[in-house]
Design a protein that fits this description.
Layout (H helix, E strand, L loop, with lengths): L1 E7 L4 E9 L2 E9 L3 E6 L6 E7 L5 E4 L2 E3 L6 H13 L1 E2 L2 E8 L10 E7 L2 E2 L11 E6 L1 H9 L6 H13 L4
Parallel strand pairs: 4-10
Antiparallel strand pairs: 1-2, 2-3, 4-7, 5-6, 5-12, 8-11, 9-10
C-alpha cells in the first residue's frame, strides 16, 4: 500500500493508504499513534488508584493512569514511568492484563494494560505542562459499579478493570 502522510503532530499523525486488497482498489485513512501503557494499581488499602483528568472536549474524566509510549519505548517501561509521573507511586512489578486496539477500524493505536503491584508512594506528581489531573482512590466494587452505570466511559479503564475482575472471578 502507498502511504501519504497528511498530518504529523506531537502525539498522532494521519496517513492515507492507497492500494489493493483481494484485487480491489482501496483507500484507508489511518490515525498513526505510538501506542500507550495503562496501569491498574491498588494502594496499601486495596483502593484503586485513578486519576481525574481533563480530557478536552469531554471535560473531566475518571480513568486509570496511562501515557503514550516514547519513540522505541517498551510498553512496560512506559508503565513504570507513567505510574510514578501521574500518581507519585512506584511499582515493584507490572503484569500484563490485556492488550487491545481501542478503535481498530481506523486507528493504529494499541493499548497495553498492566496490573501494577508492590506499590510505594515515593514522590509528588511529575506532570507534563499541559496535564491537569488529580489522584482519586476508590474501592474496586465502586469502580465496577461506575462502569456498569456508564459513569466511567474510558476504554482503557473498562478493559483493565473488567479483565482483572474476570481473572479474579469477581464479575
Amino acid at each position: 500500500m502507498k502511504r501519504t502522510k497528511i498530518y504529523e503532530g506531537k502525539i498522532l499523525g494521519l496517513s492515507v493508504y492507497d492500494g489493493k486488497l483481494e484485487g480491489r482498489k482501496v483507500r484507508r485513512e489511518v490515525i498513526e499513534h505510538r501506542g500507550a501503557a495503562a496501569m491498574l494499581a491498588f494502594d496499601e488499602d486495596e483502593k484503586v488508584i485513578l486519576v481525574k483528568q481533563n480530557r478536552f472536549p469531554h471535560g473531566d474524566v475518571l480513568e486509570i493512569p496511562a501515557g503514550t509510549l516514547e519513540k522505541r519505548e517498551e510498553p512496560i517501561k512506559c508503565a513504570f514511568r507513567e505510574l510514578e509521573e501521574e500518581t507519585g507511586y512506584t511499582a515493584k512489578k507490572m503484569t500484563l492484563l490485556i492488550t487491545y486496539y481501542p478503535s481498530i477500524g481506523y486507528n493504529a493505536e494499541i493499548i497495553h494494560c498492566f496490573l501494577a503491584s508492590g506499590l510505594k508512594k515515593t514522590s509528588n506528581l511529575k506532570l507534563d505542562e499541559d496535564e491537569i489531573l488529580s489522584v482519586v482512590k476508590m474501592d474496586l466494587k465502586k469502580v465496577i459499579s461506575m462502569i456498569k452505570t456508564g459513569k466511567i466511559q474510558d476504554s482503557k479503564t473498562i478493559c483493565a478493570v473488567l479483565t482483572y475482575a474476570a481473572k479474579k472471578k469477581l464479575y
